[in-house]
Prior knowledge:
The complex is a heterodimer. By secondary structure, chain A is mainly alpha-helical. Helices cover 78% and strands 0% of the residues of chain A. Chain A has a domain at 78-250: MetI-like (MetI-like fold), CATH 1.10.3720. Chain A is globular and about 75 Å long. Chain B has two domains: 1-38; 39-297, MetI-like (MetI-like fold), CATH 1.10.3720.10. Chain B has helices at residues 2-38, 55-61, 73-105, 109-124, 127-138, 143-150, 164-188, 192-200, 205-216, 218-233, 237-243, 250-259, 264-297, and strands at 40-42, 48-52. In chain B, strands 1-2 form a two-stranded antiparallel sheet. The radius of gyration of chain B is 25 Å and the shape is globular. Chains A and B meet through helix 1, helix 4, helix 5, helix 6 and helix 7 of A and helix 1, helix 3, helix 4, helix 5 and helix 10 of B.
Amino acid sequence: MGGIFGSIGRRMSGSALLLYSALFFAFIYAPMIIVFTYSFNANPVNMMSWSGFTFDWYRTIFGLSSKLTEQTMYVESTEQLTSAVANSLIVALTTTTVSTLIGTLTALAMARFRFALKTFYRVLVFMPMIIPDIVLGIALLIYFVTIGVKLGLTTIIIGHCTFLGSYVFIVVSARLAGMDQTCEEASADLGASPYQTFRRVTLPLILPGVVGGALLAFIISMDDLVITYFISGVDSTTLPVFIYGMLRRGIKPEINAIASLMILFSLVIASLGLWFRSRSAR
Amino acid sequence: MALALTRKRLRLTGLLSPITLLLAVFFLAPLSILLVYAFLEPGLYGGVEWNYYHHNFGRILGWADGEYEEFDPVYMSIFGRSFRLALTTVAASLLLCYPAALWVSRQPDRWKSFFLFLITLPFFASLVVRLFAWVLILKPTGWINETLMALGVIASPFDMLYTEGAVVLGMVYVFIPFMFLPLYASLEKLDRSLLEASGDLGAGRIKTFLRITLPLSVPGMVAGSIIVFIPSLGNFIVPDLLGGAKVLMIGNLVEQQFLQARNWPFGSALAWMVMVAVLAFLLIYVAVVKRADALQES
């Protein structure tokens, strides 16, 4: 008897959990699906009240003429948008290169060497990820202004590198930790120089981790708002800062289309990154 | 031998010097200047006077010089609200994520990684965009109100945007992965044989959960809570977009001091108070983890 009730109870609590989890995942994805759906809404007055299907908002952001925007004069300058996207890409690509290099070197040092200051370095490298981003943002703002550096793309790149090196470090370290060191030892025993060992053995083995870390750095840099917000100059707006400004000035329908494109873009990059990371975890 | 050692040392120096340089010049130096600024006198027109001045903290904590900077209890109440909202966010996301993490941890391995992928994915979609989605859903002419009115459930829209509830909802939403992943990690490595043993010994499902699953997942709960608490406390994007002018948090206050009021010393003092609060919580976390480790070993 008890067994029967037990199994019924198990099944009931099992399906309750299943139902709950379905709702949980719906909660996570519904807002993005709503934005995506309504980016095709033809209603120029209330963007959340469906009145028909249109591609016009997408046409607007790409600077093509469209019936809706001419009627309603909603056009936010396409030039500003394009330059924000360009700035974001420049910043993200530079930051990714620099922080991947620095993070990987640091991970190698921490994994392959013994030295006195190791604990200090471990704490130091974690710090930029731990402190609230608003604190780092204003600290950098004061610093750049005090030492007389003009705010612009360079300051944004520097700001991103300060914390993205740490992210790359974490991902590459995870890869190094799970790695068999005997190959490196064998290579050294067979007479390869440290450089040859690194080039032929270590690098190919950690490459998935490095690529995963780089993609993570790229996506975080593309998306960073708070730090960039404080240290971007007047003419060096990135995409998140541009959108944030747009939202503060009042919401216009074409933001839906921009938002949808951004979601799609980051999801593609993130899928790639997570795929690489899952490979490097293996 | 000595030569090999020097070479090794040289390589280590080469590997470590980029991060050392980067963090010394662009991390430690800025934070030090921030600390210096917190103790400087604000100038009349946005600059600073280079003399020691502790009234930036006095303005917040309750002493005044009676001349330029006045103590205003509003700052403490904003601090209070920030702590309250950050802690509510932690509690809400813990309750929200726990059952789902439990469920995912019991799925077959192949599905586990798929669900983890689903959890992690939105984290990479732009933060502004995800918050903007909630603005569209919550605002008076937003998705919820429009849908409910079209269905005839309500006659006039009700206010959901620009409330404390909206701010908590927004923070819970953007920090879900931060809570879910540590919870999942501690639930996933939970020894299944313990659950079976508990069942065999006659404990019911609820008792097994309360006596075994829950206590063993405490490290995950603590880790998730800390990781959610830290970005919640100093947040200014979420309260700005979903709380408007009505629900100010410390982050908004700091931002105002830097970009509108142009009182940088006061803003620096506020920022350092956020930092100290965050570091205090982190130290508590480290102490808890160390004690748990020690208990497990003994």
